[in-house]
Design a protein that fits this description.
Layout lengths: L13 H22 L7 E12 L11 E3 L16 E5 L4 E3 L23 E11 L8
Antiparallel strand pairs: 1-5, 2-3, 3-4
C-alpha cells in the first residue's frame, strides 16, 4: 500500500493524488527494469524511523489539556529540538519539547489519531544502505 498525505478525511486533493500516481509509477518502473535484468548500484538513503507515539497532555479524567503549538503545526518531518514549543495549554502556557536529541515529528495533529490518543509520532533520521541489486533472471 501507498499512503500519501496529509489530507483531511473525506477530501480528495489533486496535489496528493498526483504525488500518489508518481510514486506508484516509480514503483512500477523499478519492477519493469528489475524484470528486464537491470543492475541497480548500491545506494544510501535517509529515512525516518519511528521512535514512539506521543499523546496530548491530559488531566486525571483523560481529557486533553493542551493542543499542538502553532509553531509545530504543519511542520511534519522538520527537526524538533529540546526547548522548542510543543503544546499550548488552554490557558496560554507553552509546553516545550524536552528531549536529549533532535527528533522529526510526523502525523502532527491528525484528526484520525485523536481517538488513538496520538498527538504526533516522534521519528529519528537515519541512513540505510542497500547493496547492489540484480535480477537472477537472464
Amino acid at each position: 500500500g501507498v499512503e500519501v498525505g496529509p489530507q483531511p478525511q473525506g477530501v480528495a486533493r489533486a496535489d496528493v493524488l498526483d504525488k500518489m500516481r508518481k510514486i506508484v509509477k516509480h514503483g512500477l518502473d523499478f519492477v519493469q527494469l528489475f524484470n528486464e535484468g537491470k543492475e541497480f548500484p548500491s545506494c544510501t538513503i535517509e529515512v525516518f524511523k519511528i521512535m514512539e507515539k506521543v499523546d496530548y497532555p491530559r488531566n486525571k479524567n483523560g481529557e486533553i489539556t493542551a493542543i499542538i503549538h502553532p509553531k509545530l503545526q504543519d511542520q511534519d518531518w522538520q527537526p524538533l529540538k529540546n526547548g522548542d514549543p510543543l503544546f499550548l495549554t488552554l490557558d496560554g502556557e507553552v509546553i516545550p519539547y524536552q528531549g536529549n536529541c533532535t527528533v522529526y515529528p510526523t502525523f502532527i495533529n491528525e484528526a484520525a489519531y485523536y481517538e488513538k490518543k496520538q498527538a504526533f509520532v516522534k521519528t529519528e533520521k537515519i541512513q540505510l544502505t542497500a547493496k547492489h541489486l540484480r535480477s537472477s533472471v537472464s
